[in-house]
Amino acid sequence: MRFFPASGLAAIIASVALASPVALAASAEKGKAAFVKNGCWQCHGFVGQGSVTGVKLAPNPMPFDAFGIFVRNTNGSMPPYAKAILADEDLADIYAYLQSMPKAPDPKSIPLLNP
């Protein structure tokens, strides 16, 4: 068992809490609604699977901080979403929704693919 000095432990806890406090209280259910409401599905598909016009977002989305920075500052074909358009809470909920997508089954577990 590791012991941290009280000030060191407090700093670690504070840095974790400050990293993405909104993401900790996120709701996948609300995220699904925000994903649809904000039109994310039009390019990324209803479950973040990607399409010709939008990259695959789920399962296993990029880290939350990178996701937030990209959504707020993109200058590519996707328009940036300012906080006035997409609140931090909605962004965190969308991320929770993307994280909730199940991973595809291992091809070895699909009988038809393994004669």
Features:
mainly alpha; 115 residues; 6 helices; Cytochrome Bc1 Complex, Chain D, domain 2; globular
Describe the structure.
- This protein is mainly alpha-helical and 115 residues long.
- It has one domain: Cytochrome Bc1 Complex, Chain D, domain 2 (Orthogonal Bundle).
- Helix content is 47%, strand content 0%.
- The chain is built from six helices and no strands.
- The longest helix has 14 residues, at 6-19.
- The protein is globular and about 55 Å long.
- 19% of the residues are buried.
- The model is unreliable at 1-19 (pLDDT under 50).
- Overall strand count: 0
Query: CATH superfamily name?
Result: Cytochrome c-like domain
Low-confidence stretches: 1-19
Q: Any idea what the radius of gyration is?
A: 18 Å
SSE diagram, text form:
Layout: H1 6-19, H2 21-24, H3 28-37, H4 41-44, H5 64-73, H6 88-99
Helix pairs in contact: 3-6
Question: Can you give me a brief rundown of this structure?
Answer:
With 115 residues, this protein is an all-alpha fold. Helices cover 47% and strands 0% of the residues.
